[in-house]
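Please, does this match?
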Amino acid sequence: MIYDQETAIKTAKSLLQINAIKLNPKNPFTWSSGLKSPIYCDNRIALSHPQTRSFLAQKIAEQAQKIYGKGYVVAGVATGAIGIGVLVADILNAPFIYVRPEPKSHGRQNQIEGQVSAYQKVLVVEDLISSGKSSLNAVKALKKEGIEVLGMLGLFDYGFDLAIDNFKAENIQLHTLSDYDHLIIEAEKSSYIKVHQLSVLKSWRRSPSEWQPA
């Protein structure tokens, strides 16, 4: 869910300006889930751009304060949201932890890295939400330790119905700075994508699991 329309537009523009959005309809990207996609949002590139990363972190921090107030731990979902999560925690002057996809196979075998107690409240920060599976895996790891998860704030959401259903099933509130719809609108305005590419991207978004490159 988009919390602020102006921020959604500015975020989409920022990601396009730093070339974080990659298009390859003829040779689509393969996600970890096996899904084929003509578009890839590499939000980690934002970390290499001081002005962009500061803007994104500031907006997430502002939304965090408006929605949840203060007095919680910020948790980044490894690995993509560790960088932005640290920046957000710094702005909020909040403790920071991060959650691995699974426990380490050596050492202390931690899945949650950093110090957090069961009585503390946690706000999860994510960089990208597709199906929501990996994001909610982090939520489940936190809940398993008796930690109260307030909700999740992210940079970008593809807006899949599957993700919406998954978050509802876990009773987790999700807000993102921007989403696929805003991105496509701004990409078309700026001529970042061509007319023929636009039709491909819209076709993929309607049925990503059935889409095949032409």
Remarks:
- The chain has a mean pLDDT of 94.
- The chain has one domain: 5-206.
- The beta strands are 21-23, 29-30, 36-37, 39-41, 73-77, 96-99, 112-113, 121-129, 148-157, 174-179.
- Helices lie at 5-17, 50-68, 82-92, 133-144, 161-169, 180-189, 195-206.
